[in-house]
Each structure stands twice: as structure tokens, then as C-alpha cells.
Amino acid sequence: LALSRRLLQKYDLPLNAWRQMDQDDSNSASWNEFEHVCDEVNFRGNRGGAWRYLDRDVSGTITMHEWHQESADVLAAFKEFMDMSFGSVKVAFQRIDTDNSGSVTFSELKRACSRRGFKGDVKIIFKCLNVCIQPGVRSL
Questions:
Q1: Distance between CA atoms of residues 42 and 63, nearest Å
Q2: Which of 29, 46, 115, 128 is deepest in the core (most CB within 10 A)?
Q3: pLDDT computed for residue 137 by the predictor
Q4: pLDDT in tens, 56-74
Q5: How far apart are CA 117 and CA 110, in angstroms?
């Protein structure tokens, strides 16, 4: 799909592209959000056809599972791990922030995931979450 190639060229990873598509964090993308991301990557192809291809269940929205199943599975596994290990993602990030800086560094996330037995790719998860990058520092 030409649209997928353009999104991955601009945003590198499927999860990053999804974050651009799902602008309201509703876990689904509306037609307006889809149009916006098409504009962002200058997609001039058949938008209606691309929409119909991605909206496999014809629900009127596109889900992460429809956009990129593998990435949806990675994210779901991470969320399930956080829920099981800490009770919720919010509590998890509060507890993982061991230096109480208000953000989670890659080292803090990697250490917490390793100690609790997360089998997924922590680097990919970290890259796809809302990361603040300052010289010498990467944090969530």
C-alpha cells in the first residue's frame, strides 16, 4: 500500500505512524484523522480505496489492529504486562520513575521490564511512546 510506505518513510515505525493517525488517542482513527495524516505525508493516491482497504470490518473507523497487527500485538502485550505487574499503566510509570523526575528514562523502563520478566522489545516500546529528547537524555 503506497500510503503505508509514505507513513513509514516519514514516521519510521508503524506505532509512530499510528500515533499520528490516532490524534485523539481514542484507539481508532476517524475519516478526518485519516485525511489529516494523508495530508501530512502528501498522499495523493486513492484515499477512499486506502480507507476501505484499512477499515476491514467496515466500522467507519480504523483500529491499530487494522493498521498494523504486529505493532498492535506488541502494544497490547506491553499494556497487559504493565497492568499485571503494576495494576495500571499510569501506576507503572509512576513506580518505574525511580528518581522521581516526573519522566521515565530508557534505563528505568528497561530495568523495570527486565526485573519483572517482560519478553518484548523495550527499545521499540520506548521509541514509540511520547519521548522527550534533550541532549544526552531520553525520557517519557
A1: 22
A2: 29
A3: 52
A4: 999 999 999 999 998 888 8
A5: 10
Is the four-CA dihedral 37, 41, 46, 49 of positive or negative sign?
negative
CA distance 80 to 59: 25
Angle of CA points 68, 93, 20, to nearest 5°: 30
Give the number of other CB atoms < 10 A from CB of residue 111. 14
Q: Is 29 left (phi over 0), alpha (psi -120 to 50) or beta?
A: beta
Quick: pLDDT tens for 3-44. 999 999 999 888 889 989 998 889 899 999 999 999 999 999
Q: Which residues contact 10 (CB under 8 A, 6 or more apart)?
A: 17, 40, 41
